[in-house]
Amino acid sequence: MKKKDYLLLILSVAISLAAGFIGSLFTITGPGTWYDLINKPAFNPPNWIFAPVWTVLYILMGLSLFLVWRQGWQKLEVRKSVKMFILQLGFNVIWSYFFFGLNEPHLAFLEIIALWLAIAATMIAFYRVDKRASWLLLPYLAWVSFAAFLNYSIWQLN
């Protein structure tokens, strides 16, 4: 890899992790918080699992972005794909705000459907540029699928 590629790799991962950091500003789950006090389904994972899972997912997302972005900004497919990636990243942050910031699981559920569709669209766009980039987003789509079911269940229980 060229020096330019290393910088692009760092920037790509940093962009994804930054979205995670912004979303985490709304995510307060300790004792006595709204999230701690609401009803949750039996399959709700323990709170400690979310941070490591999301960290791995954001790193995979960053690697995925890098594989596409390094193909050259001058290419129309690359620009479209990166813009789609940024859009889905925005949906990712907004979900945290709706669910944890506003304490609105019903609104967050509607938003997570949009997030899921945006991830799927990003995967399709990335596939056209670099198939590996698309496959790297598959764990993210799977986790968001689980999160959508969890979100729906919490909405129904509360």
Structure notes:
The chain has a single domain, classed as Ferritin, CATH 1.20.1260. Helices cover 78% and strands 0% of the residues. The chain contains seven helices and no strands.
Largest sheet: none
In DSSP terms (H or I, runs of 4 or more residues), the helix count works out at 7
Q: Under the CATH scheme, which class?
A: Mainly Alpha
Number of individual domains: 1
Say how many strands there are.
0
**Topology order in helix (H) and strand (E) letters:** HHHHHHH
Q: How would you classify the helix and strand content by structural class?
A: mainly alpha
What is the 3D shape? elongated
CATH architecture descriptor name:
Up-down Bundle
Into which percentage range does the β-strand content fall? under 5%
CATH fold-level topology: Ferritin
> Level of helix content?
over 70%
| Radius of gyration based on Cα positions | 16 Å
Question: Unreliable runs, pLDDT <50, ≥5 residues?
Answer: none
* Terminal CA distance: 51 Å
CATH superfamily name? TspO/MBR protein
- Average of the residue pLDDT scores: 96
Tell me the layout of helices and strands:
Elements: H1 3-24, H2 34-37, H3 50-69, H4 76-101, H5 105-129, H6 131-136, H7 138-157
Helix pairs in contact: 1-3, 1-4, 4-5, 5-7
